[in-house]
Write a structure and sequence with these properties.
single chain; 106 residues; mainly alpha; two-stranded parallel ribbon; 2 strands; 46% helix
């Protein structure tokens, strides 16, 4: 606020997805200044290291990663996976980025 930004705070970023969506829509409506949305979340949520510096500074370990993935409906054994519907959404951005980089490099 001190620098004239449009600011919003989401206190429960772990669960308030509707609030995050509202904040994004509100920010899109502000045309005369930049927007900043602060989202408070719990680092390492749903792991045994949730809310601690250990979630940031040390690996969770394979068993813990599998447990968290399973909780959220992901294949716990998949090491890296991007669902096709997500890849399809971001594919145009990838192509646009390549074109812009090519233009910049020339």
């Amino acid at each position: 606020d001190a620098y004239g930004w449009h600011t919003q705070i989401i206190e429960d970023g772990d669960h308030d997805l509707a609030g995050i969506e509202r904040a994004i829509r509100n920010a899109q409506e502000v045309k005369d200044r930049p927007s900043f949305i602060k989202v408070r979340t719990t680092i390492g949520i749903d792991s045994s290291k949730a809310g601690t510096e250990k979630a940031h500074g040390s690996p969770l370990g394979d068993a813990e990663i599998e447990k968290v993935k399973a909780k959220y409906g992901f294949d716990p054994k998949a090491l890296f996976n991007v669902d096709q519907d997500v890849a399809d959404i971001y594919s145009p951005a990838k192509q646009k980025g390549k074109a812009l980089e090519s233009e910049w490099q020339s």
